[in-house]
Write a structure and sequence with these properties.
The complex is a heterodimer of chains A (183) and B (659). Chain A is an alpha+beta fold and 183 residues long. Chain A is built from 5 helices and 5 strands, in the order αβββαααββα. Chain A has one domain. The radius of gyration of chain A is 19 Å and the shape is elongated. Chain B folds into 2 domains: 486 residues, YVTN repeat-like/Quinoprotein amine dehydrogenase (Methylamine Dehydrogenase, Chain H), CATH 2.130.10; 130 residues, Sandwich (Immunoglobulin-like), CATH 2.60.40. Classes of the chains: A alpha+beta (183), B mainly beta (659). At the A-B interface, helix 2 of A face loops of B.
Chain lengths: 183, 659
Amino acid sequence: MALAALMLVALYYMPFWTISMSAPQYPGGIGMYIHIDDVTGHNRHDLQNINILNHYIGMAEIHKEDFPEFEIMPWVIGFMIGFGILAAVFGSYKLVITWLVLMVILGIGGLIDFYLWGYDYGHNLSPDAPIKVPGMSYQPPLIGCKQLLNINACSWPYTGSIFIGLSMLFAGASAWYGKTKKR
Amino acid sequence: MTNNKSKTLRGLLLGAGFIAIAAFIFTGCPSQQRMLDTGDAAQKVYVAPGEHDEYYGFFSGGYSGQLSVWGLPSARLLRVIPVFSQDPETAYGYSEETKPLFETSYGFIPWDDSHHPHISQTNGDADGRWIFINANNTPRIARIDLTTFQTREILEIPNTGGNHASSFVTSNTEYVIGGTRFSIPYEEDLDVPIDSYSDAFRGALSFIAVDQQTGRMNLDFQIVVPPYNYDLGRAGKGPSSDWVFFTTYNTEEAHTMLEINASRNDKDFIAAVNWRKAAQLVRDGYGTTMPGEYYHNYYSGKQGYAVNDVKNGVTVLDTREIDEDFIYYLPTPKSPHGVDIDPTGEFIVGGGKLATVIPVHSFSRMLEAIENGNIIDRIDGIPVLDYDSTIIGEVENPGLGPLHTEFDGQGYAYTSVYISSEIVKWSLETFEVVDRIDAYYSIGHLLITAGDNVNPEPRYMVGLTKTAKDRYLPTGPKQNHPAQLYDISGGRMQLLKDFPTIGEPHYAQAIRADKIVNQVAQIYEMEENDHPHAIRRITENRVERDGNVVRIFMGSTRSHFRPDNIEGIRVGDTVYIHLTNFEQEWDVVHGIAIKGANNTELLVAPGETKTIKWEPVRTGIYPFYCTAFCSALHQEMQGYIRVSAADSDVALSWKTGTN
């Protein structure tokens, strides 16, 4: 269980989600990574270039400072790591299960938050936008790929999420092991 | 002597006659073109859409003053780099940043005749850091950075007439060399009768040291030599890499009607210079300082204005005054043009342009001759070695007018032959011609891929020819110069392609693309923009007045300028528009053009800052716009400047945003 908790440390070092976009003018692709505390470009200046492209259709600029999540998430993950280690120290089956339930709630909560942001980002368009396509909104896909005008946008979990998955797998295994042992 | 001469003349005539007959026979036979079966040739030069060529080819522009960049083998034009020429496209030579590059001790000279591009080397192989190119007319050498493909530096060479034997580098780019084609009085600005030639005129061989980190050039020293025409040069390789070699003609010291008077001697010289020893002599204090004003123009930072560093004085080694021997003259038949060193560094090939043979000297025999004192004469202290003691072969029947030689590293040399308009391939073992192929028409230099390296790549050869005549759709009395691409990977040379070029390519070099591709910059990093008039954030845009000098600090991003409405400019003002392109995306370029601007427009690369100087002469409203099709709303990327009368009191104001 301690291993499961420590797996989450990886999230401080790598992004857990990626949105990649392709268009004829971007043979090398363009995109962004989402970390627990930051949003960065696939390449050094991608974020600036995404913002420039998006202003034509009236989408808001993406700036790290506009996301309170990046303030909260490191603490939440830190809490989960601490909680997980406590659960391991006490060897408590109940605590492990609670930890797992919390992780699932957090995951669902995160996805809902991500969807709400995506909805707002894609629908809340500036009335001054030079390019207005009637009926068109630009919500990025929650997961999977979607064609938005000339851009094909794909949204997928990234390396950090592998560690989340492994972490939950280990926690589940330790719970299972603990339970069978008891019996 | 006379007898000897008439014998040579007879030989020359006989040779010419033979070649004429041979040429007649060959031209009668269309298969001499020896094009690969058309389909095969097409396939060999076909580079599919989106695919890249294997080689970068850098072709000098000659009288266009430019350097053109080609992809080989497709012969697609990739870029034209202005060097000794103004360029309305990029504002090179018009913008305030680049104008200082053209300053010389003779004033602003925005043109020249550029002949011999040479890529910097490491261990005798081209390394793709920089490419140097000479200005023949007002002697200069330029350095082009091969990360941005921009001219970064121009160094004037003093006390020199016609810097033709230039800009060849030594094996580790220790030096770039220069040489006097037209000897002139060495003393600066000396006013003497022209017929005092033999007494008052001298040649100068220049050695320009290169800083290995920055590429910055520095005229380390010059060697003052007898008043001949120093035509071409090359650095040695491997065992001969401490030496450079220059051809001479006009050892007759003629100063009028050179076509007759400078063609009299049976032999002129190849000057072999031990540069390492010469440099040591300079370090040991053998040099004297002579006056000589010259300009050294370069960028001191990543961006900003080129600076003019005006120098005076040059360190000189005079062979008449120094007892040590560091130059030797190798007698070489009939006004040699090129001097080319094979990849092993052993063979020194002269292009005796009026000779009936291609003379080949041996470097090791030359060292022996020096050791054994096979010296037949001394001219101004320079030992003249015995011809028979240095020569190792004479290639018979090379055609008429051999000029330049390149090597394939497989034991063969390829010599361009001007008058009979062909390339001859000959063996460095037997010194016999093994193959020949036509050139269209009148070939000058030729290149082999990585040809002037210790490790040539025997893939392609390009012949750079002087007249197109009927080769392409006609375009009037003056046409572009052609080039022919040959396949040399098999046993025989085969013509693949014939294409028009830019300007008049003299020498050219080709380097494997993978030596350059990964270092090429896609943008100028805004964070590293050190231009003194750049703005760091687009919100810092503003207009400042100081007397009648107005500076507009402007930013551009898709698809607008900030500011785009400016008022308060007056007739009589000198306006500088410093445009910073805030894009950080490859190839997203913005420009600016102002109605009535009599200087230039600007084209500004991502992350770059450039300046246009504008002196409005009439009142009114001046539209300006982006000249680069930057985005879907490019046509909206425009603005207005209001110019009021000289005595008007319209306040200086600027804005962007709501109407």
